[in-house]
Design a protein that fits this description.
heterotrimer; B: 160 residues; alpha/beta; Beta Polymerase, domain 2; five-stranded mixed sheet; two-stranded parallel ribbon; 3 helices; 7 strands; globular; C: 381 residues; alpha+beta; Cytochrome-c3 Hydrogenase, chain B; 2 domains; three-stranded antiparallel sheet; 8 strands
């Protein structure tokens, strides 16, 4: 005959912790709702959109135009975009150029390691759909196959002015979005 | 610039003198472009002779060509001379053929160390094995590539 | 090194190797994401701080261009073969059309040859300036990042006037070039090259006669002359080791036989010598551009060439910014090549990476590695 387990004693600490976590959850929902209204949301979005720091991913040839865009004539830093190098400190990833199967795995790892909120710009025809190399055996036809993309920039390669417009479009998108949209 | 090819004929003559059975075919495509087809067993000796006696010290690259209608691969070593200034424009194509169903040849890494990466690429793109190569594994293809050697003529990939 | 270095395993992170001193070595994976160069991984084994073994792991930008070219028309392949080194596109384009013209037997008119040379030399300057700016990123020198990119725009404007595009021109076609010089180009070119030469003097003063750079680059990454020749190195990497090999003088093509310039070499073979070779080449290119716009003959720019590649074999090569770029082209009739083997300057210099890095400190790795101007996209094709 299976042994009967004795009745569980009421554990006061466990019930207290459970009650506390529900209360904290309700409180954090309340905080999120407050933050996501009017002026606080505008301030947070303003801070996010004017300090988009991209990871330095010079994927393929479009990186030449990204470099030129960060350079002296088309200065991306006036939009707040500063390629700083460490991916843990970035919130934007610009996928410049053709994505090979070998690199797609690593790009996904880099995307996963970035802190929220994070945004993706697919730069160039190759990052949109495979571009010139669509019939190659070693590439992935488009960045949307493995990361969610926010802005697509067509061109082969896109001019620096096109990249600047993409940054402005992304800033518009951030301005209109909720604070906790990505978690 | 003269268009005669005395230099090229001179090189062919010296090769034929020293390797009467090894040299299968020679061809002067134009001035400063020379092709020499060698039997696979003799290619290392010919290469050492070219490097030490004729001054070809500089590998320009190695190509592999798939002649699938003739059922063979052809491996071409493009070499030139840097030490001898008047010979710098000459590119000699040292060729060897290997049957398509048993593609195995000896590596020339001990003769010119620069051919290492090109032979490795020919291995992964065509499936040709080079005996004596220090590191015969994938160079450019994806780590988990399980498909056929991509540059063979009978391999086609679906275009999405 | 007495024994050849053992192959480094690709997947281990902690090493159980023991070096001669009895201490353990550590295997590091540098890359594939770098702060500026393009994706390439180096598996580096260090003993303390000294690099004892290096294995390059390329292929993160391998797009299979050799297979794509076999499936496309020779004219439609032009944008594809330009893409490996997009900042130096017209030199790669030149190698392709040279090989095709050799098989077809087409001769380019003299004005077309001069225009080709003009774009090639502008591209050489642009490519070297981009190299210098990424060197600034690697060294942590922000001025060295900004100034060359700003000056590069001078030449990008000129190229845009000539061809219509900023960096990928597709300007050279079999038989000649696609567009003629616009009016007013010659004066613009002279003005800009003269301004740029003054800027090069400032670069020398601020970047190179500066212990910030010399202490980091002199004596680092030494490549001896014999090793450079045996490994098949080419371009500034070879010329920085004391070999005066330059295809523009050894096997003159296009308009180079009629132009007056010098080949720059340095004897030491370290990173500083290679950097100096790059700077000298930019100066010579400015001189060449001025000569071209002055001496360019009148005439047609293009001879009609069929879009057919007859039976034949050609090995066409040019001196691109990073070294010799060559095509081994086999035609069989029809408009697609039977085989187009594509070897670029960076691919040839990849063999020099272990030789340049071994024995140096890990902290000197960016300086040594970037001085050979290894552009991963070009090597992977």
């Amino acid at each position: 005959m299976p042994a009967q387990r004795p009745a569980q004693e009421e554990d006061p600490v466990a019930t207290l912790a459970e009650g506390l976590s529900i209360w904290v959850g309700k409180l954090s929902d309340l905080v999120k709702k407050v933050v996501d209204t009017g002026p606080i949301r505008n301030v947070i979005n303003w801070a996010r959109m004017y300090s988009l720091w991209p990871v330095n991913i010079t994927t393929a040839c479009c990186s030449a135009e990204f470099g030129a865009a960060s350079g002296a004539r088309h200065d991306l830093e006036r939009f707040g975009v500063l390629p700083i190098g460490s991916l843990r400190q970035s919130d934007l990833i610009v996928i410049e150029g053709t994505i090979t199967k070998k690199m797609a795995k690593r790009l996904r790892m880099i995307y996963d390691q970035m802190a929220l909120p994070r945004y993706v710009i697919a730069m160039g025809d190759c990052a949109m759909s495979g571009g010139l190399f669509h019939d190659s055996y070693s590439i992935v036809n488009g960045a949307h196959e493995f990361v969610p993309v926010d802005v697509y920039v067509p061109g082969c390669p896109p001019r620096p002015e096109a990249l600047e417009q993409a940054i402005i479009m992304l800033q518009e998108k951030i301005r209109r979005s909720k604070v906790y949209e990505q978690g | 610039m003269s268009l005669s090819h005395e230099r090229e004929d001179d090189i062919i003559r010296k090769l034929k003198e020293n390797f009467p059975s090894g040299i299968k075919e020679t061809n002067v495509i134009r001035r400063a472009r020379l092709e020499v087809t060698v039997a696979s067993e003799k290619i290392k000796d010919v290469a050492i002779f070219l490097r030490d006696k004729l001054g070809f010290d500089h590998p320009n690259g190695v190509s592999a060509v798939d002649y699938n209608r003739e059922n063979r691969f052809e491996i071409v070593y493009h070499i030139s001379s840097i030490g001898i200034k008047e010979m710098r424009d000459l590119v000699l194509d040292l060729k060897e053929s290997v049957p398509r169903n048993a593609p195995k040849v000896g590596s020339l890494v001990s003769v010119w160390s620069g051919v290492e990466n090109y032979e490795r690429e020919s291995f992964e793109m065509f499936g040709i094995t080079f005996d004596g190569h220090p590191r015969l594994e994938k160079l450019f293809l994806t780590d988990n590539w399980d498909g056929p050697p991509p540059l063979r003529k009978d391999i086609r990939f679906p275009t999405d | 090194m007495s024994a050849p270095p053992k192959p480094v395993p690709l997947t281990t992170v902690e090493s159980t190797e023991t070096s001669d001193s009895g201490a353990q070595t550590l295997t590091l994976s540098v890359g594939p994401q770098h702060s500026g160069s393009g994706h390439m991984r180096l598996i580096v084994e260090v003993d303390g701080d000294i690099i004892v073994n290096v294995a390059p792991d390329p292929g993160y930008v391998h797009r299979g261009i050799e297979k794509i070219i076999e499936l496309r028309n020779i004219i439609k392949s032009i944008p594809v073969i330009e893409r490996p080194s997009i900042i130096d596109a017209s030199n790669l384009n030149h190698a392709w059309v040279r090989s095709i013209e050799e098989i077809q037997g087409v001769e380019v008119p003299r004005r077309g040859q001069y225009l080709r040379t003009l774009l090639n030399e502008m591209n050489r300057i642009m490519s070297h300036l981009y190299w210098l700016s990424i060197y600034g990123v690697f060294l942590g020198h922000t001025t060295m990042f900004m100034w060359p990119l700003g000056d590069r725009e001078l030449f990008i404007d000129l190229a845009e006037k000539l061809t219509g595009a900023r960096i990928t021109y597709s300007y050279l076609v079999p038989g000649g070039v696609r567009r003629d010089l616009p009016p007013g180009f010659a004066e613009e070119a002279v003005k800009r090259t003269e301004y740029f030469e003054k800027r090069l003097k400032e670069y020398d003063r601020i970047f190179f006669n500066n212990p910030l750079f010399t202490s980091r680059a002199k004596g680092i990454g030494v490549l001896s002359k014999e090793k450079a020749i045996d490994l098949g190195c080419t371009g500034p990497t070879l010329r920085g080791s004391g070999v005066d090999a330059d295809l523009r003088k050894d096997e003159p093509y296009a308009a180079y036989p009629e132009l007056d310039f010098e080949v720059s070499t340095r004897p030491d073979g370290d990173s500083f010598s290679r950097a100096m070779v790059h700077m000298d080449e930019m100066r010579e290119s400015c001189k060449i551009i001025r000569q071209i716009v002055k001496k360019i003959p009148a005439g047609p720019i293009r001879r009609k060439a069929p879009i057919v590649l007859p039976r034949g074999v050609a090995y066409g090569r040019v001196e691109s910014a990073r070294g010799e770029c060559s095509f081994y082209l086999i035609g069989e009739g029809g408009d697609k090549p039977y085989r187009a083997r594509y070897i670029t300057g960076s691919y040839r210099n990849m063999a020099a990476i272990p030789a340049v890095l071994l024995g140096n400190r890990l902290a000197d790795m960016p300086t040594a590695w970037w001085s050979i101007d290894y552009w991963p996209v070009e090597a992977d094709r």
